[in-house]
Amino acid sequence: MPCGWLEFGRLPFSTTGQKVSVCWFFEGARIASGLHLPGRSIEIATPQGWQYEGSLSQQFHFIPSGVREGADG
Fold first, then answer.
1. CB of 26 within 8 A of CB of 7?
2. CA torsion angle for 40, 6, 56, 19 (degrees, to 10)?
3. Distance between CA 12 and CA 14 in Å, rounded?
4. Position 19 pLDDT exceeds 80
5. What is the DSSP string of 30-44?
6. pLDDT tens per residue, range 32-68
7. How confident is the model at residue 33, as a pLDDT?
8. In a domain, 55, yes or no
9. Which helix (H) or strand (E) holds 11?
10. pLDDT of residue 72
11. Which domain holds residue 21?
């Protein structure tokens, strides 16, 4: 969903090609479509003990609108 104050993206997490789902606040003019990162690098916060293996980021998959997950056919 479009949102004027929040950005979401799947960003590289390591040199092995793993990506994590990340959200951040965005303030300012949007001069183009796409991600508006706060800088050339971004620091992410995770819960203590978090690891990529078994995380929702590792298991990420896109489900188009109108499709129920787990539905047959």
1. yes
2. -20
3. 6
4. yes
5. --SSS---SSSS---
6. 666 666 667 777 788 899 888 888 777 777 777 776 7
7. 66
8. yes
9. strand 6-12
10. 54
11. 1-60
